Amino acid sequence: MYRSLEECIVDLEKHGHLVRIREEVDPHLEMAAIHLKVYEAGGPALLFENVKGSKFRAVSNLFGTIERSKFIFRQTWEAAQNVIALRNDPMQALRNPFKHAGTGMAAWKALPAKRSGKPPVAAQEIRISDLPLIKHWPMDGGAFVTLPQVYSEDPAKPGIMNSNLGMYRVQLTGNDYATDREIGLHYQIHRGIGVHQEKAARKGEPLKVSIFVGGPPAHTLSAVMPLPEGLSEMTFAGMLAGRRFRYSYIDGYCISHDADFVITGEIHPGETKPEGPFGDHLGYYSLTHEFPLMKVQKVYARPNAIWPFTVVGRPPQEDTSFGELIHELTGDAIKQEIPGVKEVHAVDAAGVHPLLFAIGSERYTPYQQVKQPMELLTIANRILGTGQLSLAKYLFITAEDKRPLDTHNEVDFLTYILERIDLRRDIHFQTNTTIDTLDYSGTGLNSGSKVVFAAYGEQKRELCTEVPDGLKSIRGFDNARLVMPGVISVQASAFTDYAAAEQEMRTLGEAIHAGGGLPSCPVIIVCDDSTFMSETVSNFLWATFTRSNPSHDIYGVNAGYEFKHWGCDNVIIDARVKPHQAPPLVPDPAVEKRIERLFAKGAVLGGLL
Predict the structure, then answer these.
(1) Total-model pTM
(2) In this structure, is residue 25 part of a structural domain?
């Protein structure tokens, strides 16, 4: 049980999970580039002891593998799981009282503890410009905090038990921010801090915010946990850390006694400034938009403070481990929240939010001989109306019939659906709705569409396992490649506008129909580079579902409407890059060359790659 980030680092090093980099490293792109290579190689956590331009050390890749993450929480993991399970299903305690006898005590011990006296983090007052100002990608708007714990309290019910701790992007430098006096916060209005801000604005008051950085790793994980109703992040932080969250107040701001750094400030009603661009977890840049402005009051650092950071980009990245940790801790929470659902998988390779795979139940009409999706559609609507799942664009859902399914086996799961889906009955659109703020495939910020592919019943088709002849010689659509059974990618000229795209897709559909159809090939992907698209399943999932907006980019062979329901013989998805989409993340070649010194034979990271 770690009392500080330093204790965790010492423990990881002792057990061979951490490497110290003593050579001076530039926070401008170099540190991020090093982290990315080490993460990709499955390497250790990294302690940068000599950060150019800052007296503070920095650490990354703490959660780089699920094994290391579970090692960090090895002493408190089971107790935390038990408390969450009990919150999800209170009847467990009645069914097995002796097993859960200590759970209530564990939760009680985790209650936050208010302290008197000066907190260690207030040992020195510093400026924003004193921090390790890490810029991750070449087009980033400035330096960002990537592992913040952003704390706010409900203005109507102040106090730590009515607080929110969230991980929201924090821009420290760049754009129009006044140096050392202003920073940017990127969050959606429906998030916890957004609710607090709206209440403060209604009262005509600024919202006081504290940003904790560092401290026990449990505090960092708590900021991203989707917790059951009634279980606060502060309580969970104490539970997972094995000791109470210790805090006090300075000038009306909550101060974590265990954090390495604390930034305090106010968000004033209606005050925004441009925030971004920033390389995000979809593998593209999120562009510059107006977001709340935080006016900095004070910045604190504890003695020998360490700055934790991560790098986000095209998955998998370190935040993938966060997702796995959350899934293991919350277990069957989704089953409790949505009756009939058995499994929901936010597909990491597609950037998490764009694509969901789900297994539900089909119990509405057990007496019917012909099986088709019915309850699955009810479950699909519940999924797309639940928390972060509501940001999804594509949902593929089915029910187990004669064999078990695993949504994490993407090819097998999609194959099962494509073998069974009725393309004239089982595709359901939601147009002009909300999608992820970071997703630029839609019609505007937060605006786009959704589609549900629901399949159930007997197998309807054998899927092609090689490129059908009918796709090898269609003018304007070249280099046809098999992506997976039933899915073929074809290459077309660059996208110009939707009017031209509609004509192009009509031409493709008419050619396929005139050639007698392709019943074994239910999905055709039109792309810029079909070799890339078909090279790996990861490429297919990423490029297809991050570059398409269902309402605008799904077409069909022999498509038509019946009583306002759209259907087709084959689905065509236009996954070409669109002019309005954000650029993909591309490393700086000069930086890649510079960091080779650390991976050379005999260097600190030599032999890792």
Answers:
(1) 0.91
(2) yes
Give 85-101 pLDDT, tens digit per residue. Answer: 655 554 444 344 444 44
In this structure, the answer to whether residues 14 and 159 fall within a common structural domain is yes
**CB within 8 Å of 94: residues ≥ 6 apart:** none
pLDDT tens digit sequence for 503-561: 999 999 999 999 999 999 999 999 999 999 999 999 999 999 999 999 999 999 999 99
Match 């505090």 to its residue by tokens.
Answer: 219
Looking up residue 521, the CATH number of its domain turns out to be 3.40.1670
Residues 377 and 281 in one domain: no
Q: What are the DSSP calls for 104-123, one per residue?
A: HHHHHHTS-EE--S--GGGG
Q: Could you give the CA distance from residue 176 to residue 161 in angstroms, rounded to a whole number?
A: 35
Identify the band that residue 109 occupies on the pLDDT scale cut at 50, 70 and 90.
Answer: low
* pLDDT tens by residue, 181-212: 999 999 876 668 988 999 999 999 999 999 99
Contact assessment for residue 247 and residue 160, using Cβ atoms and an 8 Å cutoff: yes
The alpha carbon dihedral of 321, 537, 496, 517 has a sign of negative
325 lies in the same domain as 225 = no
The predicted structure's pLDDT at residue 97: 44
- The rounded distance, in Å, linking the Cα atoms of 84 and 400 is 27
> At a CB cut-off of 8 Å and minimum separation 6, what does 314 contact?
282, 283, 351, 542, 584, 585
Q: Tokens representing 528?
A: 């810029």
pLDDT at 165 over 50: yes
Reference 574, options 465, 512, 516, 500; nearest CA is 500
Supply angle C-alpha 533, 531, 535, rounded to 5.
60
Cα distances (Å, whole numbers) of residue 466 to 472, 477, 526: 11, 17, 17
Average pLDDT score over residue span 96-116:
59
| Total domains present in the chain | 3
pLDDT of residue 297: 98
pLDDT given for residue 95 in this prediction: 43
* Residues 262 and 120 sit within 8 Å (Cβ to Cβ): no
Q: What is the DSSP letter of 496?
A: -
Judgement on whether residues 334 and 429 belong to the same structural domain of the protein:
yes
CA distance linking residue 558 with residue 517, whole number of Å? 9
